[in-house]
Design brief:
Elements: H1 2-22, E1 25-39, E2 42-49, E3 58-61, E4 65-72, E5 80-83, E6 109-115, E7 121-127, E8 137-143, E9 157-166, H2 171-181, E10 190-193, E11 210-213, E12 218-225, E13 231-236, E14 241-246, E15 249-256, E16 259-261, E17 266-272, E18 279-287, E19 298-304, H3 328-336, E20 356-367, E21 381-386, E22 389-391, H4 398-404, E23 437-439, E24 442-445, E25 449-457, E26 466-470, E27 475-482, E28 501-502, E29 504-507, E30 511-519, E31 523-529, H5 532-537, E32 540-545
Parallel strand pairs: 1-4, 3-8, 9-12, 11-19, 20-25, 22-23, 24-32
Antiparallel strand pairs: 1-2, 4-6, 5-7, 7-8, 9-10, 12-17, 13-16, 13-18, 14-15, 14-17, 18-19, 20-21, 25-30, 26-29, 26-31, 27-28, 27-30, 31-32
Length: about 575
């Protein structure tokens, strides 16, 4: 018996060592620089990584380690966030400015280290300082470990497809202007597919991304929504799509003729080229149930190479018909179809017994302006809040303050429930409820806590959808609905069998979404709406997960070149 136990222990150690040996170390240098790019008849200077827009893709496998030297040769501060990478016990490389680090200043550099764990599929990286992510972003592709297979037919080829956005103005000027006026930001001038606006915009007939394919093949499209402020619809004329993954996790395959994708979210889908060889438009435009938005459509071209050279422009009438910009059911219905595989090869682990419950209201608010001079409602300043708290970023990173025991940077009293109870989704909302309070308030979780958060949208100032993103964790989306969450009846309909494992989820306008996760990643982790203007307005908070008792349950120390605020 003792011999059998020792054999199992030795076999386990050998297997762990073998896995470690099979893992690969990848090294990249990201040089942040200012580059000239021409779109929509004019040229401007933008921030890029290595001069590329969109930025360079990074390819890894599960279990691999990535080392990235970020070298800032630009004139702006910068940080880089690895969106969807769990950063196990190592929040020092997570990236959000003044949450886990101070920005990398011009002339500075920082080496980030990432160890991939259970992530699989498409993730991405992007700047997490001011609005720099408008042009500083790129895909992160995580392949299965050696010997593993996709749980769907092997594709002939894989293609990243990044939805982006373009302003004729300098993006920093856009940010500065709306922060100064207290109103909404100016909307963009174009949307982009892989950096190109497409044929419907001025001076853009040649600025079109072309995806060249062969008849009878299957392609894996890895889609990232890098748009700043909008959920997007996407469609390919005459073709069906089979969704197989999202946010670095596999999904039960389902067939659809359109995609609805939130900012920050990724969707993997299979495209089978089974139509008569020709050219077909791909198109994307906004889903926006409220607020100002760019009401334009970006296009790309799916081009069958079997039909030789194409010399004439496709007629605009061939652009596929997308859901209407305010088609809330189309957005909700797509998201509701996401389901984890939840099988023996790809199991899930949904927390069933919850130790910490939260109800978080998500609101657009106002705050008074000097001399009532702002451009928001009632001549006040637009802000945003979670549980009526508009988050104020400190000048020392919260991670650094937590690790070094520095007091006065944040308080540990973020409310678990809304401070004011009202009919959250009714209209109109009384004006006294429009205003929020400021604070750098955080939530502290014990290691291994099981957490449920119900995000409740409110109709203050009309309401809107909120794509909520959590750093350091993926979570299970166990329920959603329209109206006010009912804590007695709605949990009876939770999906605890095969909920999707996401890091970003759209909370519907006038509705709620429930998520669950286990807090087993010690560190400091940001949670925020991924609409960039809402982040600028303060719709965020921070979870601090305490260390556990064992050595492998404790946060690791900072690197030597950490961009300190002290």
């Amino acid at each position: 018996m003792k011999m059998n136990i020792m054999f199992v222990i030795l076999l386990s150690l050998l297997w762990g060592h073998l896995n470690l040996c099979l893992a690969t170390l990848h090294h990249h240098t990201f040089v942040i620089m200012e580059s000239q790019y021409t779109r929509l008849c004019s040229t401007k200077t933008i921030l890029t990584v290595n001069g590329r827009f969109p930025g360079p893709p990074v390819f890894v496998a599960q279990g691999d380690t990535i080392v990235i030297d970020v070298v800032n040769q630009a004139s702006h501060n910068i940080t880089i966030h690895w969106h969807g990478v769990k950063q196990d016990r190592y929040p020092w490389s997570d990236g959000p400015e003044y949450i886990t680090q101070c920005p990398i200043q011009p002339g500075g550099r920082f080496r980030q280290s990432l160890v991939m764990t259970d992530e699989i599929g498409t993730l991405w990286w992007h700047a997490h300082s001011d609005w720099s992510r408008a042009t500083v972003h790129g895909p992160l592709i995580v392949y299965p470990t050696n010997g593993s297979r996709y749980p769907f037919p092997r594709p002939h080829r894989e293609i990243p497809l990044i939805l982006g956005e373009w302003w004729r103005s300098d993006i920093q000027a856009v940010l500065n202007e709306f922060q100064r006026t207290g109103g909404d930001p100016n909307v963009s001038d174009a949307f982009l597919i892989n950096g190109q606006p497409g044929v419907l915009y001025p001076c853009s007939v040649e600025d079109v991304f072309r995806l060249r394919v062969s008849y009878g093949r299957t392609y894996l499209i890895r889609m990232v929504n890098a748009v700043m402020n909008n959920i997007m619809f996407f469609k390919i004329a005459n073709h069906s799509l089979v969704v197989v993954g999202s946010d670095g996790a596999y999904l039960k395959p389902f067939t659809t003729d359109y995609i609805a994708i939130s900012p920050g979210q990724t969707i993997d889908f299979l495209l089978t080229t089974n139509q008569p060889p020709n050219q077909y438009y791909m198109a994307s435009r906004v889903y926006a149930a409220a607020a100002q938005f760019d009401n334009t459509t970006t296009t790309a071209i799916l081009e069958y190479v079997d039909n030789g050279n194409y010399t004439t422009l496709l007629p605009f009438s061939a652009i596929p018909s997308l859901p209407a910009f305010n088609d809330t059911p189309a957005s909700i219905n797509f998201t509701d179809r996401l389901r984890s595989l939840a099988n023996r090869e790809h199991p899930i682990n949904v927390p069933l017994s919850i130790t910490r419950n939260f109800l978080f209201t998500l609101s657009i608010n106002i705050q008074p302006c000097v001399n009532s001079s702002c451009a928001g409602p009632l001549q006040e300043r637009l802000v945003a809040s979670i549980n009526n708290v508009t988050f104020g970023s400190p000048r020392i990173s919260i991670l650094e303050a937590y690790y070094n025991g520095i007091e006065g940077v944040y308080t540990e009293d973020f409310p678990s429930d809304p401070p004011f109870q009202f009919n959250y989704t009714a209209t109109p909302v009384p004006i006294p409820l429009w205003r929020s309070g400021n604070g750098t308030r955080v939530v502290v979780l014990d290691y291994n806590s099981t957490v449920e958060i119900v995000f409740q949208g409110t109709s203050i100032l009309g309401g809107i959808d909120h794509p909520m993103h959590l750093h350091g964790q993926s979570f299970y989306v166990v329920g959603s609905g329209l109206g006010n969450f009912n804590p007695t009846t709605d949990p009876l309909n939770y999906n605890l069998v095969d909920p999707p494992h996401q890091n970003t989820i759209a909370v519907p306008i006038g509705g709620w979404t429930a998520i669950r996760f286990r807090a087993n990643n010690p560190g400091v982790w940001l949670m925020h709406c991924h609409l960039e203007r809402h982040v600028s307005w303060g719709m965020e908070t921070v979870f601090i997960t305490r260390d556990g008792d064992m050595p492998d349950q404790r946060m690791m120390p900072p690197p030597r070149d950490f961009p300190s605020c002290l």
